[in-house]
Amino acid sequence: MDPELLSTSRGLYAVKWSFVGLIATALFQVFIFWFSGSVALLADTLHNFGDAATAVPLGLAFFLSRKKPNKRFTYGYGRVEDLAGLIIVLLIFLSAVVAAYESISRFFFPQPVEFLGGVMAASIVGFLGNELVARFRIKIGKEIGSAALVADGYHARADGFTSLAVLLGALGIWLGYPVADPLAGFLITIAILKIVWDAGKSVFSRMLDGVEPDIVDEIYLTVKKVKEVKDVTEVRVRWLGHRLYAEVNIAVDPMLSVEEGHAIAVEVRHRMMHSLDYLSNVVVHVDPLGSAGESFHRLSEHEHDNLPSHSH
């Protein structure tokens, strides 16, 4: 089977079952909130529903990434996964707004919280449900190289710890401090906003073609191991969803034939694809030593076809 198709199928599998797990967790918490009226539990429940909802755009992105490139989308539909990441960040932020509103409302207009044992049980279930989903998402995400899925897994793990804040709120009420419930809701809101900040940085970095610097260094080292390569002048890497594409400029002996230069480029690509299993495709540009690099491809200022003086 095509490895990229296999990785996409694994991604859909992870999204589907993590969605089921989080929905089951959130529904149990809704049931407990109905009897208890805990605003901290409501905030955590909304957050879990929001986390489950992130599976929808992520699943759609994995589904569309199966489509083959065409004349309009020549690189395929991998960017949809980046758009899904942006939607996920917005959904998480929305859950923070709702949790903050409910916490402020209950702080100024307190309401009794009942069924404290159920609230404690719901918070523990929320923690366990999120931690299981986190482990599942991170495992599959690392297997297929999906940073979005891994990030969503760490997001679920953070959600699990916010569920423990609900437990603290319930313990505070049990000890005679009813204000502990809305305060726990505030703590959860702050935790959600921290997740929004971290996830937002990751998503916007991907949308701006940001990659981990270690990847660039590893590509340099791998290409330089090919003995016919005299120099590596440029390395460009970018993510398209969970697929990583690279472009490298290499310099070779200028006395080689075109056929020999092509053979070296094939060997470089072969070496990179085998050594760096996170790459989906590599484009290798061959230059003669002494004229290698993008600076040698630029055209100095000139005129033609009655156009103003310009350069390329």
TrEMBL record:
Pfam families: Cation_efflux, ZT_dimer. It is a multi-pass membrane protein. The keyword Metal-binding does not apply. Residues 18-207 form the Cation efflux protein transmembrane domain. Residues 212-288 form the Cation efflux protein cytoplasmic domain. One of its GO terms (molecular function) is monoatomic cation transmembrane transporter activity. One of its GO terms (cellular component) is plasma membrane. Coiled coil: none annotated. It comes from the Archaea. Its main location: membrane. It is found in: Cell membrane. The chain crosses the membrane at residues 12-34, 46-63, 83-101, 113-133, 154-177. Keywords: Cell membrane, Ion transport, Membrane, Transmembrane, Transmembrane helix, Transport. Belongs to the cation diffusion facilitator (CDF) transporter (TC 2.A.4) family. This is Cation diffusion facilitator family transporter. It comes from Methanosarcina thermophila.
